[in-house]
Design a protein that fits this description.
Length: 211
């Protein structure tokens, strides 16, 4: 009996902590935790449920119609704060807090992390090229499509690279996005559309009028 009470107290503390740290109310946190538990399993020595990368990708497709494997993998890595290859219940809730209801500042840090493939604190010319090559639909012409992408990379660097070091720091990125919000997802969509955001928020019982 004491064990059940201890589990209930631990669960209550987790819900309260996640409510405080996120943009979700207590009922929404509880529904997200139930969703995580339903889609997670135990791995290794830990008895705490954690979600596998592939299941997370499946949910991104099912709930938000995301299909780009490269970007979905990067989104997973942005959620996976401890980089253990799984999503804990806390990573799941806090990740969705930014993904669905984050402030511009939170979303800028999140998208920068998605695009910074080697986690060195910069978006390099090479990373920009690879993301654009992956996300842009190129028409079959006699011209080399890579050349057009390289030109686009140079235009973006010219516009966004404030300190002229041929790569984007978080400061460069934030300054450019604050001036032109459309640059937030310049290297490919890594946030859900408004339509699917509202649908998912309704699913978890969230008042989404302010999103």
């Amino acid at each position: 009996m004491e064990s059940l009470k201890a589990k209930a107290r631990s669960r209550r503390k987790l819900v309260d902590d996640l409510h405080r740290k996120s943009h979700f109310g207590v009922p929404e946190v509880e529904r997200l935790l139930k969703m995580h538990q339903k889609n997670a399993g135990t791995h290794g020595k830990s008895d705490k449920p954690k979600m596998e990368r592939q299941r997370f990708a499946d949910l991104l497709y099912e709930e938000f119609k995301m299909t780009d494997d490269v970007l979905m993998d990067r989104i997973f890595r942005a959620f996976d704060v401890d980089a253990d290859g799984y999503l804990s219940d806390e990573e799941w809730v806090l990740g969705f807090s930014t993904f669905l209801k984050g402030s511009l500042e939170e979303k800028m840090k999140y998208t920068f992390k998605v695009y910074d493939q080697n986690a060195d604190g910069f978006i390099s010319r090479e990373e920009m090229f690879q993301f654009l090559k992956n996300s842009l639909v190129t028409q079959q012409t006699e011209e080399d499509p890579d050349e057009g992408i390289k030109e686009l990379v140079e235009l973006l660097l010219k516009k966004m690279d404030d300190d002229h070091d041929s790569k984007l720091s978080l400061k460069d990125f934030e300054q450019a996005v604050q001036e032109e919000p459309l640059l937030l997802e310049l290297l490919g969509p890594c946030l859900p559309s408004r339509k699917f955001t509202e649908k998912f928020l309704t699913l978890i019982g969230c008042d989404n009028r302010s999103t």
